[in-house]
Structures are given as C-alpha cells and as structure tokens.
Amino acid sequence: MTSAPLAARLREVAGPLFFPVTAFGPDGAVDPDVFRAHVRAGIDAGAAAVFACCGTGEFHALTIEEFRLAVAAAVEETAGRIPVVAGAGYGTALAVQYARAAEEAGADGLLAMPPYLVVADQEGLLNHYAALAAATGLEAIVYQRDNAVFTPETVVALARTPGIIGLKDGLGDLDLMQRIVSAVRTHRPDDDFLYFNGLPTAELTGLAYRGIGVTLYSSAVFAFAPDIALAFHRALDSGDDALANALLDHFYRPLVELRAQGRGYAVSLVKAGVRLQGLDVGEVRTPLTEPSAAHVKDLIEIIASGRTLLEEHAAEGHSAEGHAAPGGRA
C-alpha cells in the first residue's frame, strides 16, 4: 500500500487494468508462488493496476484466509509500483470482513461487488456500499452489474459518499451510463468521480464507452495475451483505427463469440489462456467448469490470429515501441 490516494493513481494510468486469475496448485489450494509469478509478469508487461481476487480471480470461490494470502502476495509483487485493488462482496457483514482483510494485507483499494443473491432497492444498495466504504480507510469502486443496478440519483449519492471514488459498469446499458455521467457532472461539477468499463472482454465496447467519456477498462485479455491487450489500448489512445478495428474484427469479436459458448467462460477461458502461455495456474474451482478441448483449440487459433495482426502491423512500418514480443508470456 502507498500513501498516494487510489483515485489519483488510477486517474493517470497509461495501460490496461490487470485482473489476474488466482492460481491453484495440484492439491486445489491457492498457490501463492505461482500467483506471484502471474502478477509479476503482468507488472513487467505494463499493467497499470492489479485488481486481485475479483471476478476473474474467482473471488466467489475463496475463503477469507485464501483471499488475504493472495492479496498480500499481489501487494508484495507490486511493491508500490502500481496500485492493488481487492474484491469485496457478499452481504454487508461479510463484505466488511473481506474489506478489512484486504486492508490488513496492504491493498490500496476495493472493488465492491454486488451483494449476494438478494435484489435490494436503491436505498438498501446505498446503505450497503456506504457501510462498506466506512469500514476501512481504503477507497472503493462500486461494481454495477446483475442485482446491483443504480439510478443516476443513487450514483450521485454514491459519489457524495466518503471513500467511494468510482463506478465500474458491468451492465452495458449505455443510455443509463450516459445519464449517470451527466447526473454526477451536473450535481458535482468539481468532482473527479471515476468510471470504468467492466464488461467481460471490455475492449469490444471500448469505442462506445469512450464516446461517453469512459476510458478506463478492465482487461481480462491482459491476463493471457498482454501484447495484444497493450497494442489495442495504445491503438485506442493514439487513434490508430486501422489496428483497433483489425483486432476487433479478428481477435476480440471471435473471442467474445467463443466466450458465449460456455457458462463461466469469462473466467475459465481466461484461465485456460494463461495456462497456454506456459504458467500452470491450475483449473477453475467448482461450480465453474473447464472449457472443452475443442474450445481451447479455438482459443489457441484466436490468440495466434491476434499476434499475426501485430506482426503484420509492425511489418507495415508502424511503431511497435513498448509492445511485448508476439510470443510474450502472460
């Protein structure tokens, strides 16, 4: 953990936000050494922040002791170079326990997941996140998805809540997001509330979200193909529409279509991708299941297609400065 506020550090990021998978050993237990290697590789590849033990990291499957162990490992590897944000979820009491465990482990902030199972009204959701934000000294990002969907008025209230610095959107309703951004801007014109595109494979909707001013996004692809994720991020920032569109057409769209072929593939397909790059992070925990052999073969071909595009782009004389080599490891 560093003394610099999380909001300020995230406002200045120059790369994708890294959501590592949680490594499990042959015995099914969390493997902190392999997890550290995974985090270290992401940092070396250019991650702007590490979001440990969140959705891609199977937060739902971790005991609080395992959670604390993994978050501490991420903090050790970053050594203050980039911020570490940890997941916190379930009902209010358990979410507070996870938040305090994250703080004890040295995290810089929290990604506040939706409450477990129940569908609450706006007042209940606001009370939940306010209690979570008040429980520690960590700044929190609220994750909108599933059973936690907010009206613009509620997000204005969240933005006024001490300790809450942003909203990550995993819903994908751009009309709602535009109204949220407008409402917060209207009622808090001097506020620097942060917004994140948190859809699975967020790059596919990156251009649309940028249209309403949302430039920060989570990148699951960075976990297994950091060279592709970085190239796409830089293409968006530099206005290289040719490369961005080529990657959308021949890498990201096929990847999203493959992800849609299996339940839980937003996690298990990513974990398979990390293993394909040479790091044995183990399989997903139940109730998730592994992708089929045929789908893993499809994933191999999609990754190869993305890297071929990068090679062709570089051969055409475009700058490849800062890109990982086509065979880079996650």
From TrEMBL:
One Pfam family this sequence matches: DHDPS
Keyword Lyase appears in the UniProt entry: yes
Gene3D superfamilies: Aldolase class I
Enzyme class: lyase
Protein origin, superkingdom: Bacteria
Pathway: Carbohydrate acid metabolism; D-glucarate degradation; 2,5-dioxopentanoate from D-glucarate: step 2/2
Keyword Lyase: yes
The EC number(s) this enzyme carries: 4.2.1.41
Keywords noted in UniProt: Lyase
Reactions listed under catalytic activity: 5-dehydro-4-deoxy-D-glucarate + H(+) = 2,5-dioxopentanoate + CO2 + H2O
PANTHER family, per database record: 5-DEHYDRO-4-DEOXYGLUCARATE DEHYDRATASE 2-RELATED (PTHR12128:SF19), DIHYDRODIPICOLINATE SYNTHASE (PTHR12128)
Family statement: Belongs to the DapA family.
Protein name: Probable 5-dehydro-4-deoxyglucarate dehydratase
